[in-house]
Amino acid sequence: MYAFEYRQAKSVAEAQSLLASSGGRPLAGGQSLVAAMKLRLAQPGTVVDLGAIPDLKGIRRDGNALVIGAMSRHAEVAASAAVRDAIPALAALAEGIGDRQVRNMGTLGGSIANNDPAADWPSAVVALGATVNTSRRAIPGDQFFTGMYETALAPDEIITSVSFPLPQKAAYEKFPNPASRFALVGVFVARLADGSVRVAVTGAASAVFRATTLEAALAKAFTPESARGAKVDAAGLSQDLHGSPDYRAHLIGVLASRAVAAMR
Fold first, then answer.
1. pTM for the whole thing?
2. What residues does each domain of the chain span?
3. Which CATH number fits domain 55-165: 3.30.465.10, 1.10.260.40, 3.30.200.20, 2.40.110.10?
4. CA dist 133 to 16, 219, 242, Å?
5. Which among 101, 18, 83 has a CA at the least distance from the CA of 52?
6. What's the whole-number average pLDDT of the chain?
7. Is beta strand 46-49 parallel, antiparallel or unpaired with respect to 5-8?
């Protein structure tokens, strides 16, 4: 580790001011940023802790949406009766993140702001057509994730909450790395309130993306067989020691089929 200034903000306005004046980085649960700092992959001169800001916490039902505060920890989402009642797929997703320490420290806002290519939360944001609310604006989920570890956030912009529209049904399935529990491939399938189908994939490319061929197939027949039979193009998918693009393309269809079957 190296020397840096630690500041704890008491409000969103104070945090935004500190970030703007220092050029520092916000600290949510620390599960990504602290690890990156230890490896010197990130070297901010100032770290602004968001943990004491009450406006960033809480889970509530707001009409036909579920609003989750950015500083809500994965374990809190997994255990929330409101989440389990409104969108149980989100509780299941949160329960499958990392290990117990990660779930008890990591946050929704921190995860999507970091936008790791294999993180679970981005798939839920995109598949459910969620809105990312910040200290400045509301960003549609489809426009939030812009590339590997990149988002639409400005340097001093802070995620305050995420608003998830309630779907008719939804499910998330992933093939996890046995060590990290990150997704080698994760697929979130949602049938929205208007009957449309959205399928978002994480872990298979440089950033989360929608699987449009699967969406088209499931729009015609919402069955596991339709998902398994849809052709997923391997072009542009990740190649690494864990799997080839063809392998990941195969997993996308398999996991989408399992997600649809889980909704029945």
1. 0.95
2. 5-49, 55-165, 169-262
3. 3.30.465.10
4. 14, 29, 35
5. 18
6. 96
7. parallel
